[in-house]
Design brief:
heterodimer; A: 13 helices; about 45% helix; globular; B: mainly alpha; Cytochrome C Oxidase, Chain A; 2 domains; about 70% helix; disordered C terminus
């Protein structure tokens, strides 16, 4: 009977294609659509802040260089991961992340909570030549970041696009994006106050790459690395306990 | 090739190339301060390079014979050549990035040669360049032969083939310049993605129109798989790549999917790229070239139906197994795991169907390396689908995820299944398309086979070892409850395996280069002897039709 039906289906190209679309659509619809409607998919985090323009530019460098191929940003709910990297990652922590950078491979360690773990100068030295700091490392050198001027002319367009997609940047933030990028990297400059005013007192204003006078891609990337895991405290407040690693659980 | 086209078709082709060049000019102008401008130049060069052969033959005599009385094989031949060029490029990049992990100094002092930028040139080069061109070429071949009808277009097959390669060139050159969405296996930026949609819709229409011309009442199994490949890849590609460019003159865009939803969409795409690009399409090859080469009919029609619909339905649920123990809601992880385990049934039904087809032809498997390529591919398909279901089980995934085990699993599939079935199919196809009696050297096919098998096994065993060791080191505790190893300890333990993996990849690359040489010499040195008799479509003008 089923075979007879299939013999009929095989005679119609259009019918066959429609059947393929029908069969292939179910799984995706069932698994994806509810993620937008079930409220507790993404936790509440009233203290969540947005990336500053400099951090966003740094994130785009991380995206451009394909860092996700070796570094995850997703601490799983396993005991050993929580002990190694810190509280496990919550969905809300990446709610402004386009794309998400959870990654799929750890040739290097997870960086979801690397913010604040090392000094700015450690990051710069490490990115200049990883083996200077970690002799066993197989990470490439990113010395070119320190000699490349950060492109700031289109930062307003970046923020405007993010705003159009629902990230809560204000019109002032969009308008002042380039200025705020400079302000965050030059603590003694006149533009530093504006960044803190717009993005909050907790904003990390620092001469990230240690060079004065020039805003480089190194500044941006280090600013981004230093904010990883620090957009909200939600993960540190949670009372949830990590799961035991499966083979040790009993 | 141009001589097969009529005068008006040549004009149409020239107009289309002109339009593409105009798009290139527009991109170069709009993106003059951006990497997009470089891509505009590449688009112009690409169109210009194709205009050269077109215009040098534009005044040639028009075809006089009835084209409907023969199959349209020119685009297939070019597709095979492009596929092998991409194979060598993509595998070379793979060996290079593998070597970089063992010897990080193997890079130039520039952004373009860092691991992060080179790695997607390897993945896109082999998956889309090598695999994609092989799929397009074999799809064009299989649909004509099983429908006994010529392709339903004179220019559209060329448009599909070259348009697709333009996409590949834009993707790979973009990664070197830092143009990437950093969405794994969907790295190409928005304008390349849009272009691929145009190309893919043309491919779909061409395929359906050719099937509609078939002189057989039933659509053969191989075509089911090619249709699923074309249709579902279109859906996946469009949904996953929905993005907002920051301006018309910028290569940068932001995906519409945020955070956790992006993770789910990405791996729904990622896993089904494996399912419908790397499985369905290549099963289409298997269902045609394996029985042809073995000279045996497919073992079971019912198993074909079961496995086809099982794969089409189940795979789409499985993507969330890439996100076990993450911030993705638990219910989605559980669904993904459940369907991944169930997937073993249709997967093994396919593999079993292929192997049982060889009953009565095992002596051919022993004597004919080409058929052995396809047999080994079916075995690796069975092994890696088993491994895939196994790795999708949550507690197993706790160990394997983020480690080289995943990389080993992917390569068991990509080298052992996808590449072997492709080489087997191409070694069958090349002599028949160029009307040669046989490949130039059966010995070289044999050498290629053993290099490929040795390379795959070395690679996969190295990655199994490194992955399991890595996973265990990360979770090992000392007696007093502290983590026993730092991350760097686990990295140091990886180096021997990274070297072994590079050697495995190198063997596989050498095999592919030998394959290229053998195909080249087949076309050049083996006399054209095989007559066309029998290999003809049922012409549209047959009396009584």
């Amino acid at each position: 009977m089923a075979e007879l039906f299939h013999r009929k289906l095989e005679r119609s190209a259009i019918g066959f294609v429609l059947a393929i679309i029908a069969a292939a659509s179910v799984g995706g619809i069932v698994e994806i659509a509810p993620l937008f409607t079930i409220d507790d998919t993404v936790e509440e985090a009233p203290d969540m802040r947005v990336y500053t323009p400099l951090e966003l530019a740094g994130r785009n460098i991380y995206v451009r260089e394909g860092c996700y191929a070796c570094h995850s940003q997703m601490i799983r709910t396993l005991q050993d991961e929580v002990e190694r990297y810190g509280p496990y990652s919550l969905a809300v922590e990446s709610k402004y992340d386009r794309p998400m950078l959870w990654g799929s491979k750890r040739t290097g360690p997870d960086v979801a909570r690397v913010g604040g773990k090392y000094s700015d100068s450690w990051h710069v030295a490490h990115l200049m030549n990883p083996r200077e700091v970690v002799p066993e490392s197989n990470m490439p050198s990113y010395a070119f970041l320190a000699r490349t001027t950060l492109r700031t002319g289109d930062l307003s367009e970046h923020l405007a696009a993010q705003r159009a997609l629902g990230v809560p940047y204000t019109p002032e933030m969009v308008e002042n994006a380039a200025r705020d990028a400079f302000g965050q990297a030059f603590p003694d400059g006149s533009e530093a106050a504006g960044v803190v005013e717009r993005y909050g007192a907790a904003t990390n204003v620092s001469a990230f790459d240690g060079q004065s006078g020039k805003l480089t891609e190194m500044d941006a990337l280090v600013a981004y690395l230093q904010v990883l895991g620090r957009l909200t405290d939600a993960a540190h407040k949670g009372s949830a306990v990590a799961e035991n690693t499966p083979d040790t659980a009993n | 090739m141009i001589r097969q086209l009529t005068g008006s078709e040549r004009q149409l082709a020239a107009i289309m190339l002109g339009l593409v060049a105009v798009v290139g000019v527009a991109m170069a102008a709009a993106g003059r301060n951006d990497t997009m401008g470089v891509h505009g130049l590449i688009v112009m060069l690409f169109a210009g390079a194709l205009m050269y052969p077109l215009f040098s033959a534009i005044g040639a005599p028009e075809p006089t014979e009835d084209r409907e009385a023969s199959y349209y094989d020119d685009p297939i031949k070019v597709g095979i050549v492009l596929s092998m060029i991409w194979a060598v490029f993509g595998m070379f990049m793979g060996v290079w990035v593998a070597a970089q992990l063992a010897w990080p100094g193997l890079a130039f002092d520039g952004a373009w040669s860092t691991f992060g930028r080179l790695r997607p040139t390897h993945t896109s080069g082999v998956i889309f360049g090598f695999g994609g061109n092989a799929l397009i070429a074999t799809a064009f071949h299989v649909v004509q032969r099983t429908s006994r009808a010529r392709l339903a277009g004179q220019i559209s097959p060329w448009f599909v083939l070259f348009g697709y390669n333009l996409f590949c060139v834009l993707a790979v050159s973009g990664y070197l310049m830092g143009v990437t969405q950093s969405k794994e296996y969907a790295e190409a930026e928005w304008y390349a993605d849009l272009w691929l949609v145009v190309v893919w819709v043309t491919f779909f229409v061409l395929y359906l129109r050719t099937i509609a011309r078939r002189k057989e009442p039933h659509i053969y199994v191989a075509n089911w798989y090619f249709m699923a490949f074309i249709v579902v890849v279109a859906i996946l590609h469009i949904v996953n790549n929905l993005a907002l460019p920051i301006s018309w003159g910028s290569a940068k865009s932001y995906t519409v999917w945020p955070g956790v939803q992006d993770a789910m969409v990405q791996w729904w795409y990622g896993h089904n790229a494996v399912a419908f690009f790397l499985t369905a399409g290549f099963l289409g090859m298997l269902y045609y070239y394996l029985p042809v080469r073995a000279q045996r009919p497919i073992f079971s029609y019912r198993l074909s139906i079961l496995s086809f619909w099982g794969i089409t339905f189940f795979y789409m649920w499985a993507g969330s197994h890439h996100l076990h123990y993450t911030a993705l809601p638990h219910w989605v992880q559980t669904l993904g795991m459940t369907f991944s385990v169930m997937l073993l049934v249709p997967s093994w039904a396919s593999a079993g169907n292929a192997l049982l087809t060889l009953n009565g032809a095992w002596h051919r498997v022993r004597d004919d390396a080409t058929l052995r390529f396809m047999t080994a591919a079916a075995i690796f398909y069975g092994l890696s689908t088993f491994e895939g279901s196994f790795l999708a089980i949550r507690p197993v995934n706790a160990l394997s995820h983020y480690t080289d085990w995943t990389v080993g699993h992917v390569h068991a599939g990509a080298l052992g299944w996808v590449a072997l079935i492709t080489f087997g199919s191409l070694y069958t196809l090349v002599p028949s398309l160029w009307k040669r009696e046989r490949m130039y050297s059966a010995t070289l096919v044999e050498v290629h086979f053993w290099l490929a098998i040795a390379g795959t096994l070395i690679y996969v065993f190295a990655m199994w070892n490194s992955g399991v060791i890595q996973g265990l080191m990360w979770r090992t505790y000392t007696g007093d409850g502290a983590l026993a190893y730092s991350f760097v300890d686990s990295l140091v333990a990886m180096y021997p395996y990274y070297i072994a993996r590079t050697i495995g990849g190198l063997l596989f690359l050498i095999g592919a280069i030998i394959g290229c040489y053998n195909m080249w010499m087949t076309v050049r040195a083996v006399p054209e002897t095989v007559s066309r008799q029998g290999d003809l479509p049922v012409a549209a003008t047959v009396p009584g039709e």
